[in-house]
Automatic annotation (TrEMBL):
Protein name: Mg2+ transport P-type ATPase C MgtC
Pfam families: MgtC, MgtC_SapB_C
Organism: Gordonia jinhuaensis
Taxonomic placement: Bacteria, Bacillati, Actinomycetota, Actinomycetes, Mycobacteriales
Transmembrane segments: 35-53, 65-82, 102-125
Gene3D superfamilies reported for this sequence: 3.30.70.260
Cellular localization per UniProt: Cell membrane
Ranges for domain MgtC-like C-terminal: 152-228
Amino acid sequence: MSHTTEFMIRILVALACGAAIGFERQWRARTAGLRTNALVSLGAALFVVMGAFSFHGPDADPTRVAAQVVSGIGFLGAGVIMKQGATISGLNTAATLWASAAVGSLAGGGMIGVALVGTATVMAANTMLRPLARLLDRHHSVAGREQPEVDYQFLVTCKPADEVSVRALVFDAIHQPQFTVRSIAAIDEPDGTVTISAQVHSEERTDSAIETALAAVVRADHVTSVRWSATEQAVTD
């Protein structure tokens, strides 16, 4: 087999492996999808091929290029990691890019079988471990786990004549140390009632504290309905 044919096989395998890893990410609408992972794997393979066949002599060390790929991909991975308050997103995407570079380096080094196994393992980790991760997410008592920040919205309905007193009641209920009040507004409904809309922010999800805070509002005679919802600010990996 000629060197040219061998190069083409390695490069195409690297491209296919990166595309396979990226397909799963694209399917789940993640930041770095099919093209990004394919290009990362392809680029890593090209650098490794260059290091293996372009430098000759007693002082030549092809592994230096591969080592720079490992460190260099960290800058690309850092670009997809975002921090919003106490929530950090994009870590899994960055790790997947790093794994794509590793698979591409294996293919570029001629270790085709290991590259294929590595590709399958990365895809399995991103799919099969997802249910386990979600199960662990439900247990907020896991030590060291950061809680996602949450925005709560309250909708309290009353008669127009009771708007002022209900608004004061809602404000007193949500004016707690663990909450940050962002807005309180009154909305006139077509059926002649008034809806008091309030939004508060919490650094962690505390549904029980919300229910306790709204207990006085729920028991008020001039309140006809109370609804609340929570929106976590955490972004999936």
